[in-house]
């Protein structure tokens, strides 16, 4: 089974083909915990509620796939090692319709992933219908073309989710115990928002929705009060659409060039006594974080948001790059929590030759940034797919699957993970699951490419990037 259940005890005999399947509630179990008891005449599924029973049914279906009609008698007792087991889809760089998202969600539910991190705003597009700021979807949802690295197209690209569609996705996820965690990335990665509302930037000058990949220098102005009023109103609207506990507010890749040249931002820094623009970013994130906390939500940020050293410890840090000056460690030492999503193990937009299925499985759940708290600092894991270079749902699926399943097992089994060899053997047996949900997954010959094939794939991947883009990213990265 995938993920492998914590305990399975086999007993003598087999269940009859017409054995009754019964379900019972047991409030003593945790939300995601479940039991299965297979006896000759009866199969009993136990959970404390909807999610536990769904997981029990899912595991039973997988058992039937493995054993066919001769289901051996057994007892299964299972629960996850980590409560946060997330998958991320970037719908800002390329828009994917709700039917495609539902396929990805249903497939993820099969492996007991329980958070859908929905990336719905970035430099290249805003993707949600807004009642209070309609220019967001009218202007921010469409770009003039794609100039992503070496790929060029003059076809306008875009799309956005209507409010009913957002509710539909949230409800669909809810059926399978999945919470949607929306992300509005800020103060950087906001070019699409600024194309719609340019007065929120430092210079207030018009900008176009981004048409290339990489890092952009446009930021929300952290000095103007209007910026915060806008974000608060927007959050009020979004919190109604997204009822979950967590809300992602980005905080990554925000070069400080604009803030350094802005009288409003500089005035704010002086008033607050900040030594540098990193602290201003901490201030910016804290204001948004405290607004979310006041509404009973938990903010999540990418790890760059802690570099100012002043981020509120209630903000969960999503760890993806390096720990500059041990600031991530310092945040966790204060009692902050982390979601682990290190690029080399968790980013599925890279070819299998760069981040193999085995690499995904071998995510280090105790990196040095966690310091002495180790497991206590970790909420869980996330596996991600970014879509600058993914334009079709077939590529989206082949890049994601089966790597998402490997991440799901790491989050579910934790340190008791049975190892990659064991995992890949079970994956082979259960491979027909992908076809069952209409998903195109990479075949086993793709999972861990040999050295030559890996080198070939890495070279092809590098061809996505143009030399100018690379140079610009290098320059801006130094300023983050
Ligand atoms: Zn400013």
What does this structure look like?
There is one protein chain. With 480 residues, this protein is an alpha/beta fold. It has two domains: 7-78, Chitobiase, domain 2 (2-Layer Sandwich), CATH 3.30.379; 84-477, Glycosidases (TIM Barrel, Alpha-Beta Barrel). The chain has 18 helices and 17 strands. It has helices at 50-67, 98-110, 135-138, 163-175, 191-196, 225-241, 257-260, 263-272, 277-294, 327-333, 343-346, 357-361, 393-400, 403-413, 420-430, 432-436, 451-462, 467-477, and strands at 7-14, 20-25, 34-38, 42-47, 72-78, 84-90, 115-119, 121-122, 125-126, 142-143, 157-158, 179-183, 246-248, 298-302, 316-319, 338-340, 378-385. An eight-stranded parallel beta sheet has the order 12-7-6-17-16-15-14-13. Strands 1-5-3-4-2 form a five-stranded mixed beta sheet, with helices on one face. Strands 8-9 form a two-stranded antiparallel ribbon. A hairpin with a 2-residue loop joins β8 and β9 (125-126). α2 runs parallel beside α4 and α6 packs across α9. The longest helix has 18 residues, at 50-67. The structure holds zinc ion (ZN). Residues 202, 221-223, 259, 262, 264-265 line the site of zinc ion.
